[in-house]
Design a protein that fits this description.
The chain has 3 helices and 10 strands. By secondary structure, the chain is α+β, with helices and mostly antiparallel strands. The strands form 2 sheets. A 6-stranded mixed beta sheet has the order 5-10-9-8-7-6, covered by helices on one side. A 4-stranded mixed beta sheet has the order 1-4-3-2.
């Protein structure tokens, strides 16, 4: 796709907002507040709106549940070690992964390659589940 074709898409300038299901919205609110240190910016019946560095995500009441088999949302941080240490202090449990091409050590994986536009050679990553089983990731580009 050329840049011109990309720019003509009605979604090219749209804001992206992640939606995460929650069977128990009160439990999810407690998790995001107590374990992640986040408060909703806004709320409506059945939904909590969070904003991090200008990007929105919503946790919404749902009768369905995430399978938790893939990363549903990721946070990009400047210091992964500090972020993981603080979240562990708050009670977050990080996943240990041992799969072809991806292995964590003490909850952190070293990942080869990155997107050229990010100007990084790789990424370090860690994953955890929220109170509703949603799999969330934290990444730090490496130079």
């Amino acid at each position: 796709m050329t840049e011109r074709e990309h720019d003509s898409s009605p979604l090219a300038r749209a804001r992206v907002a992640t939606r995460l299901p929650a069977r128990d919205l009160d439990r999810a609110r407690r998790f995001y507040r107590e374990q992640l240190g986040l408060e909703p910016l806004d709320e409506r019946p059945g939904g909590l709106l969070y904003r991090c560095a200008g990007a929105d995500f919503v946790v919404f009441r749902s009768t369905g549940a995430s399978p938790g088999t893939f990363t549903q949302m990721g946070f990009e941080v400047d210091d992964l070690d500090a972020a993981v240490a603080e979240l562990r202090r708050r009670g977050v449990v990080f996943e240990e992964v041992d799969a072809p091409g991806l292995r964590t050590r003490d909850g952190i994986a070293e990942i080869e390659g990155n997107y050229p536009s990010k100007g990084a050679r790789g990424e370090r990553g860690a994953w955890f589940r929220d109170s509703e089983g949603n799999l969330l990731g934290i990444g730090q580009p490496t130079q």
